Each structure stands twice: as C-alpha cells, then as structure tokens.
UniProtKB/TrEMBL annotation:
<keyword id="KW-0998">Cell outer membrane</keyword>
<dbReference type="GO" id="GO:0009279">
    <property type="term" value="C:cell outer membrane"/>
</dbReference>
<feature type="transmembrane region" description="Helical">
    <location>
        <begin position="43"/>
        <end position="63"/>
    </location>
</feature>
<keyword id="KW-0472">Membrane</keyword>
<dbReference type="InterPro" id="IPR036942">
    <property type="entry name" value="Beta-barrel_TonB_sf"/>
</dbReference>
<dbReference type="InterPro" id="IPR008969">
    <property type="entry name" value="CarboxyPept-like_regulatory"/>
</dbReference>
<dbReference type="Pfam" id="PF13715">
    <property type="entry name" value="CarbopepD_reg_2"/>
</dbReference>
<keyword id="KW-1133">Transmembrane helix</keyword>
<comment type="similarity">
    <text>Belongs to the TonB-dependent receptor family.</text>
</comment>
<dbReference type="InterPro" id="IPR023996">
    <property type="entry name" value="TonB-dep_OMP_SusC/RagA"/>
</dbReference>
<keyword id="KW-1134">Transmembrane beta strand</keyword>
<dbReference type="InterPro" id="IPR012910">
    <property type="entry name" value="Plug_dom"/>
</dbReference>
<feature type="domain" description="TonB-dependent receptor plug">
    <location>
        <begin position="256"/>
        <end position="365"/>
    </location>
</feature>
<dbReference type="Pfam" id="PF07715">
    <property type="entry name" value="Plug"/>
</dbReference>
<dbReference type="InterPro" id="IPR023997">
    <property type="entry name" value="TonB-dep_OMP_SusC/RagA_CS"/>
</dbReference>
<keyword id="KW-0813">Transport</keyword>
<keyword id="KW-0812">Transmembrane</keyword>
Amino acid sequence: MKKNASCNEAGSAFGGNPLLPAIRPDDLNGRYRRLYQASVPKLLLMMKLLSLFLVIALLSGYVKGTAQNVTLSGKDLTLKQVFRAIEKQTGYVVFGKQDFLAKSKPVTLNVRNLPLSALLEKVLKDQGISFELDASTLSIVLSRIPPPVTDRIDLLSLETPRILVTGTIVDTLGNPLSGASVQVKGRAGGVVSDKLGRFFLEAKEKDRIVVSFVGYEKYEFPVGKGEGNWVIVLRPSQDRMENVEVVSNGYQQLPKERATGSFTVINREMLNRSTGPDILTRLEGITNGLLFNRTVAEGEDVGEFQLESRGRATIMSESTPLIVLDNFPFEGNIRDINPNDVESVTILRDAAAASIWGARAGNGVIVITTRQGNYNRKAEISISATTNIFSKPDLFYDRRFMPSEMVMQIEKEKFERGDWLGDENLKFSFSPYAELLIKRRDHLISEEDFLAEEQRMKNTDVRNDALKYLYRNALQQQYSMNINGGSNVNKYFFSVGYDKSRSAMVGDDDRRLTLNMQNSFKPVKNLEITTRLTYTRTNANKNAFNITDLGTSRSGLRPYTRLVDENGKPVAVERNIRTATTEEAEAAGMLPWHFSPLEEIGLSDNTATGSFLNLLGNVRYQLMEGININATYQYTESNNSGREYYAPETYYVRNLVNLYTQPNGTKPIPYGGILSLSNPLQQVQHSGRIQVNGQRNFGEHDIAVLGGAEIRQAVDQSFPGSILYNYDEDLGVGTSRMDFTKTYLLYTSSGATIPGPDQNTYYKIDRYLSYFANASHTFRSKYILSGSARWDGSNLFGVKTNQKGTLLWSAGASWELSAEDFFKAKWVDYLRLRSTYGSSGNVNKGVSAYPVIDYSASSFVDPNLERYASITSPGNPSLKWERVATFNIGADWSIFNRRVSGSLEFFTKKANDLIGDAFIPPSTGIGSANNQIRSYRYNYAALRTNGIDLQVTTKNLEGPFKWQTTWIVNFAKDKVTDYYNSGTLLGVNYVGLYGFQTPLEIGRSVSGIYAFPWNGLDPSNGKVKLLKDGQSTTDYAGYLASVKPGDMVYAGVTSPVYYGSILNNLEWKRLQLSILLTWKAGYVYRRSTLFPGMEYEGIGSFHADILQKWKKPGDELVTNVPAGGGLNGYDRNEATVYMYSNSLIARGDHIAIQDINLSYSVLPGNRMSGVFKSARIFLYARNLGFLWKADRNNVDPSMPNARYPQPKQFSAGVQLAF
C-alpha cells in the first residue's frame, strides 16, 4: 500500500475515466445471421468471434490506460483548468485539499502529447505540491511538500500519526456509488467518493469511519494500523427500495415516486435469492399481485403453472401477462432467457402502468430488463456456479393404484367367470396374471411353479422397480460468466451461460448455452448507438420411460409388473401383444419380439434441438437539452426441430418389422435403423419503433412526454417432416422410397399403412401497427398528473372499417400528502395517494374475421384424391379486440422512522367484448357440435374482477442482528356480468362430462366448479342417496336426464381467490437467512376417485378409494365411497352422480414452505482480498412441504391433478466478482 500525504477534503476537479474504444459487431444482420443457421463448426466460430471482441475491448482499454499523453495549451491556466483537462483526456481523477487550488499559481502551457507524469512535474513545479500516480485506481493524489526540518520541537509532531484510508464504495450488485459521504465519526468535514466510488481519507488509529449515501443504510468501521484498500458495500434502505427505485414500462424508465401507476419491481438481488433455470419461476412468492396457479399441472408435468396478474380479465383468450424483453414483446420460450443476465423485472398491474402496451396489456405486463454495461467503469468480471439436486418423485403419492394382491383377486374372479375366453383367441395382451392362470389350467406349468410365481406377483410393486431403475435424483448445474464496463464514450456487457440438467427420468437430459453481447458507444456528441446480440441453443435427449409407459393400451399398468429378475437382470414386460403370440412368432423365424424397458433406454437416440437469436440496433440522438429521439429495430428468430433414431435392436423397429411381415414371409419394412425428423418449426419477428422523449424542468413544474410509432410482423411456419427406413447411422444413408399408400395385413389381423412422415405444414403471419403517446406533469415534486394513449391495428380482427383498430387510453394522478406543510403527523415518514383509470386490451389468435379453411393432402388414404378442404371456422366479420377497463386507487406509506412501510391498493377490472362460446340451437346450422350442443365463438361476454393488493414490510430488529419481514396479501375475485345462454342446457353439462366445457353463469366466476348435491349413502345397501323433487329415488338415469342447472351445487372456484407470502430476512454480520412462506385460500378442487365396480373393467381402472367402499351398515358414517358393483357390473349412472358429487370437493387452502436461503458474504465490508471484489456462497432449499392444509387428504392442494408433488430441491452455489 502506498501512503500519501493528507487529503482531508479530497474532491474531484472534474469526473473522468479511462477510455475504451467503441466496438461494433460486424454485420450483425449478415455474419451472425449466417452463423446462427450453422451447426456446431459455425457455432464454435461464433464463440471465437465473441471471444475476439472481448479481448479487443480489454486490450484497447489497457492500451488507452497505460499510454496516457496530454495535449494542452493556454495562458494563465488555473490548476483547476489543468486538472479538468487531465481528467477528461486520461480518465485519471485528481484528489487533494481544496486550498491547493485556491493558493496555487496560474501556469502557461503549450504541450502536445506530453506524458502525464512529465506534465504534472511541469505544472506543480514551484507550487509546493507533490503528486502520486496510482495506475491501479486511475488516481492522482496531491500532497503539500513539507517545510524543511528545523531544530525547534513542534508539539504537534507528538500527535498520533495519521493513516491514509482508501477504498471503494459499491452497492450490493457491485456498482460504484458516486458522491457517498465518508467522514471520521465525531469530526467535522470529510470527503465524497468519485465517479468510480473511490475515496481517500486521513484518520487516526482507532478512529471510526462513517460511510453514508442517500437511500442506503450507513456503514461504520474502525481504523487500524496499516489500513489497506477497503471495499464498502452499502445496502439499500427500505425508504430507497420503496420510493427511490426506478421502474420500467418498456418504453421509458422513471423514478417510482414519479409514477402514478401500479408497479412491482424485483431487483437482481431478489431474483438471485432463488436458483430456478428460468426467470419466471424466480418470481414466485415475491411478487405482489402475481399468482402462480399450479392447479393446471397434470400427470408428470409437475412444473406447469399458469400466470395470472390480478385475477382473470378474459374467458377464452390468452390469460397470461404480456412479457416484454428489453422493450419489445417476447413470445418465445422463457427458458431462452438466461436469468443471470436479468437486471430487474417490473410488473405493470394497472391501466396507467400497462396501457402504453395497448391491446395486448389486458392481462398485465411483465417487463424484463437485462443487464448492460456502464460508462466510466473499469472492466468487472462476475462468475456464478450453482448445483441443484432434487429428491426422487414420490410415486407412492398417486392414489390411482391398488395392492397387487387385490388386483390379482379381481383378475382371478374375471378369469373364473370366463371373461377372457374370447381374448385367448386373439393376439393382443390382456393380463399377465390371467396368462399365468391359463398356463395352470392347460397344465403348462406345475402347481409348485404356479404358486411361486403367484406369490412373487403378490409381493411385487412396480413402483419400487420404477423408482430404482426408471427414476433418479434430478440434477441441474448452472454456470454463468459476464464482463462489463466502459469508458466515457463506450459501455459493453458480455455474458455466457451454460446449463446442464439431468431429468428425474433416466434417459432424459438437456443442455443450454446462452450468449449475450451488448455494446453502446458515442461516436460523436449527442449520438449513441447500441447493438445487442443474444443467442441461445438448447439440446435435449428424450429417451426415458415413465411409469405409465409400462402399461398396455388394453390392460393398462399392472402393479405386479417387474423390471428385473431376482438377479437384477432386465426382464421383458408384456406390451400390446401376448407373450404367447410373440413366442410363437419368434419360433417361426421372426425377429425377437420382447420388450425390456431397461434395455430400450440405451438403444434409442431421440433428441430435440432449439435455437433463439435476437439482434437489436438502436440509435439515440440528443436533439437538445431534455429532448432525444430513438430509432430501434429488432430481429428475432427461433427454430425447433426433433430427431428420433431407433437402432435396429430397439423394440420399435423389431415390432414394426414383425407386425408388417406378410403371410408369404415378405417384409415391407426392412430390418434396419429408422430415422424420423419431425416438422421443423420456425418463428421470425421483425419489430421497428421510432420514439421521441422529452423531459424539461420549468421552475416548480416537471414535464415528461414521449410519443412514437411501432410496427411488428410475426411469421410462424412449419415445414414437412421426413422419415428414412433401413437407416445406417454411421453412413448417414437410408431409404424413403416406401409405399405409404398401400394397406398391409398386419400380424395381428388388422390392416394399416406404413408409418410415413408428417407432411402437414402451416404458415401464419400476424401484423401490428401502433401509435402511442405518454405524458406526465409534476408540480412542486408532490402533485402528478399522467396520461397515455395508444392506437393499435392488426390483421387479426375486423372486416368493418371501424373495427380494424382500437384506441386505448389511461389517466392517473398522485399526491404526496406527507410533503404538505399542513401535514403534522410526525410518526408518518412518507404518504402518497394515487389513482388511475384506463383501458387496455387482449388478443385471441384462435378466431378470425374470415372463414378459415384447412387443406389436407390425402395421399396416404386415397391416391386419387390429391387434397381436400374443411372449414374449421365460419368466420365473423364483426370480431374486434377485447377491452379491459381498470380503476385503481392506492397509497404508499412508511411510518415510525421507516420501521413499517408498504402499499395498499384497491382495483376493479371490467372486461367487455370478450370472446366466448355462445351455445345456440342446432337449427342455426353454424358452429361446432359438442354432445348435440352447438357453439359459436364471438364478442359478447363481459367479466368483472375486484381485488386488493397489500404489501407491508416491517423492520422487527435493527443493529448487529437485523430481522425484516415482508407480508404480501392479494385478493382477486371475478364474476361474469354478461354471457349468452340459450337455456337448453342441463345440469349434466355443468360438470364437464363427455369433454363438454363448463358453461358460465352470470354472477359466478369463470373458474367456477359445479357438482351434484350429496345426500350421503343409504345405510341399508350403501347406494348413493338421491332426492328428486324431495323424494328418495334410485332412478339415476332419469335424474341425469332431467336435472336442471339450478339444482346443481355451485361448489366454489378452482383458482385461488386469496394468495400471498411471508418473507423473513435475518442478517447477522455477513450471514443472511431468508425464509419464504406462500399461502393460497378461497378455492376448491375435485378429488380423483373410482366408483366401485369400475376396477373390473381393466385398462388401469384402479384407485385406493376402492379399499374404503361401503361394506356393511354403519360404514356410511365413516366413508362416502358407495358399495357400488362388482364382478357383475355396476350402475354407470349412479357412478356419474357419485364421481361428480360435492362429496369429492375439497378445500385447497394451505400454507407452504416455499424456500429457504442461507448465504455468507465472504468479502463485502472487509478489505480487498486478492483480486476479488466480493464473494458469496449460499445454500438453498425449495418445495419443503406444507405447514398447514385445510383438507386432511394426502393430496397436494396446489396441484391436485399431478401424479406426484414437486420434488424437494436442495442447492449450493457461489457468486464471485473481481
């Protein structure tokens, strides 16, 4: 460490930084476009070019920073003028006492390309000032040359020696804080940090240094001997987080306190507390007003969810919020965005916030802003690595299983009655246990062997083998590296990310590579040019078998199925053809026909590949002070394709060859590999925008305006697939010269054509044209009026002129009440009231103003018929945009010296002209028929949603140990206010029978669920009690045929009405603990079940509820499962009444432990250690179970239709910055 003379009142004469030359990517629309379409070799070339860009940027910065020459001429220049020129030309910042400038002598200079050190020597000669150059921090420290030593004793020299304390002040993200105050505690004066966050301060040993900055918490540290270079990390104060944060609506950025609309901002620090592979899952539980509805998850898709912002505002159209990525709508796969590249996420919730997006903002808007470089900042590198491991799926959670012994007893009863006598003459599989019984009957197996095999089956549970051999602990590895920085004319950001995931199912895995390069430079005054390239490539292997794949099409999955024998060797599982049939065929010389799932996993090579390319160019020109114009163009392209290769040894190939073998022994399908390429899908978007921004201050008035126009075109298309038989993977050759039109006799006696390629294609083009404007007026920094308007046009809707476009608008106002002189409540630190009203819209791409005709080629069916057409939609020239009007009123506050702060909002959304299915009589002859009920889709419905958003943050403890809690409470309830109903519907239409969509009722929710009334079980026979006109009856068929909608029970809604979270943050020194609880309430779900008797039907009709069925009088007091039927059948109408009764409706209310994060910051707040600026290690756990559930059934109420709950997640990671 270099110790310099005192500089108690250090200050920068003029800000500056090392220069990095502007770097522009070459020919983004040419070179990178071609690189993108290339395969692996060209991908490597792209990476090399990007690496070259990085090296050039760094080297250019190094050259500029080490060869510092100055050109300066002038007469009687003050030192301040000289230092200002030095800082401007070299980037070095000058520190020293202010009186150095006041007491200095003017100098006359005429130098050209003079080295910096030589110039300083020339200027400071005879000034009594010395200097010290520090190239590592780009600083010049001035000091007074001490007077000559004399023999007189100076009592001041006996004082405690002073120590020069140096350091850098940054925020929690590592960004330098310029203008932070640094002073010795209890002493007047001090210094401020420069543009790079650096400071120099003289102090004594054991002094305490206090660092403060507006909007951040103060930081103190003691001075010790030999102090080095400190890195001080300041944390945002709650006041800053709520009232000084910047929000982005995709068109502009503005301080939150200047916005009248409703925004929720999630910064990078909050986003990084979780470790999800995509940015949306990281928002769950921490975002006010955003519901992650997981009740839509079914089967093994346990990660599925539906996003809703402030409830629903549509019926049939898209209900998820519009996603905006760096100021343009994003319609691709959210996994194409690397979450480590995201700077912030802003949720636009009301009309004033979202209406700038017009006809696509009715469901709210999620604005994602990615990271950028910073002007006047040295290059910084950040690296993060995370490993996520998941528990195995809980296959024993699913109640759609029965014990093997009970299933075998059912099958034995069916066998003894002769149910499978007819199946014995067929070649299709029906029951492995029945096959064993047949062998016993026909004396093909000894009694001893029969009993041993029967006992083995009884002791087998296929879920044990599946967990051991088909499932595993899923594993995700995430790596990310980025570098950013800039000079006074250039800023850049470059990142690379690599994710590798191993699925919970053996044979499935995927990889993701992301590249992001942004560069902005100012070639001339007032002009800024920005370019960005984002590229993502994904590769996935899809070779796994899940537990349901083990079943057959005729008999389903049998619980006694096993995957390995006693020695752990893979065994064959009966597929769709009887084992006896396959053995007979093999004996006749056909290919082996057994199916062993464990052997199959390693024989196939099925992959899916995707890529995403985003190119953006922006030109920004400062017309005059406060007014600039922006022109932006963006090109986006995504491609997805699939490849399925089956080796000759796979069951798929062997089964096809054997099935198509003709009676004369000919084989239409050759024995060899099969390569199938699915239809490639491509989406290309072109977007352009021109926008003028203005902001001026006129005394007490602040005016901000923007206006512009944008145009966008999106083209979706697919291309024909292909298939090659007898494919040699090593040579890459096969044949497609097959007769796909001929029907062949199959070995199973039915006929079929040879599987051919998918020749379907489609081409869809959407065009949008918009004009927009926004303005706000702030008076005395406490009164704000805002307004916006947008006109949207599209080729989606409207034949009539007045429906080709729509005008949407909003208005808002806010009042900072606490800034008024008359406001005397001292316990209130901040209080702002705001209100907005406006309209936005929604899009339904599934309807058209014109008739839609689907053309199909039918060469596989009739070679003489080249193509045929069918009308899929009759067209509706009166179609128009859906409109959503939103009223919002709210307050932001903080009280008790910022100990309690938050916001409270009330909102009402009225959605009109909603597109819905109107059920109409068949006599109209239009629309599609569904169970004899015809429907026609057009604008006519209306919906109203009322709600409340509340967020409160409390500082429970402050000091060395900090404890902060954030409470989020959301309420959103919708009801239909207009919906056409012909009155011809029956009650059975309201429970979703026969795939019929539940009709809507005025005054009730879109997600309402109906049920038959439940009256219990008859204690005499266990049958379902049925009341018709107040009288007990068993005429279930008559009841179903006549039950009226008014007789149905409106059981509730399937989407949570109340939801929220509780986030506790605890901090002690460098250790942080964060615990997130989430809760949902006010909704119900229908439990799965099975009517007793159905288990005899086969096809996997099993359920644990059968074990609880009524057996004797008195059981009706402890069970609702009817006695039902048995081997001799059951009453299907009674089964319908039971399975759709409200006895199976359960409350979904629950409180869950969403996640826990424990982190330790190694370096922040301590002196610089090596090359690292900061380091953080963390442990993370997610999906940790429920604290409370309203219903005691063993069902996850958040996803009741899933086969198993979300597996628990445990993670560890490290984040480094240097």
